[in-house]
Model the fold of this input.
Amino acid sequence: MAPNTVEKTPVTLLGLGAMGTALARTWLVAGHPLTVWNRTSARATALAAEGARVADTAADAVAANTLTVVCLLDDTSLEQVLAGTDLAGRDLVNLTTGTPAQARARAEWARERGARYLDGGIMAVPPMIGVPEAGGYVFYSGSRELFEAHRETLATPAGTTYVGEDAGHAALHDVALLSAMYGMFAGAAHAFALIRKEDIDPASLAPLLADWLVAMAPSVHQTADQLRSGDYTKGVVSNLAMQVAGAPTFLSTAEQQGVSPELLSPYFELMRRRLAEGSGEEDLTGVIDLLVR
Done:
C-alpha cells in the first residue's frame, strides 16, 4: 500500500534576516515547498542547499505561490519591495514589525490590489521558532478567511493567536505586551542598581526578584476586572492612599544608595495625581485613565 502523504501548502517568504531564516528553515523541515527572496541574495544560499527555491526578484517570488509571508525591516521596506508587484488573488501575511495604523493602512493597500491581508505580531525570538515547547506564538489580525485557510501552515513555525478582523489589533497586542515587558525590565534595572554598591551578589537577588515578579503577575487579572466593571475599589488589598504614603521610602532609599529615581518617579507622580482627583480607597487602576488622552 502506498504511504499516505499530504501535500503541504507552498509558501513564499520575503526577507531572510534572523527571524525570516528561522521561519524558512521550519517550513522546509516540515515539508512545505518554499520560495524565498532577499535583497542580499547571499543570505539565500544556505537555504537553497536545504531545498528552497530562490527567486530572482520579489515579484517572481510572489508570483510563485498564493501564500506570501513578508518579514522585512519595517513598513517602508515592504512598500519598496512590493512596489509594482501583482498581488491580485494573493494571500499576503505581513510579519514586519509596525504600528496598528500602519497595519490598517497596509490592509487597505492590499485590498486595493486584490489581495487578502493578515497582519502578524511575533511574540518570539528566532531561537524559539520551530520549537513548540519554547512557547513562542504570533498574533494575527485581518482577514479571518485567510487565517482559517492557512492556519495549519502559519502554525508550523510558532503558535497562532487570532485577535480579530481589525488589521491593527495584532500590532496593538504585540506592542502592549512588549511595553509591559520593558516596564518589568525598568523595575528590575532599578532593583539591581539599589544593590550595586553593596556586598550583595546580584546572582543571589535574581531568583528572589524572579519569584516576586511571578507572584505579582496575576494582579493584571484584577486590573482587567476593575477596568471592565468600572469599580476600582473592587478586591483592593493595598489601596492607593497607602501606596502613595509609602512612595517616599522608595525615593529616599534610592537617594541613599546613590541611585537615580528616574525609572520610578514618573509612576509615583501619576499615583499622586490620581489620589488628588480620585479615591484613596482605589487600587492603582485609576493611573491607566490618566495615561489615556
In short: Residues 1-5 have pLDDT under 50 and may be disordered. The longest strand covers residues 116-123. Strands lie at 11-14, 34-37, 53-54, 67-70, 91-94, 116-123, 137-142, 159-162.
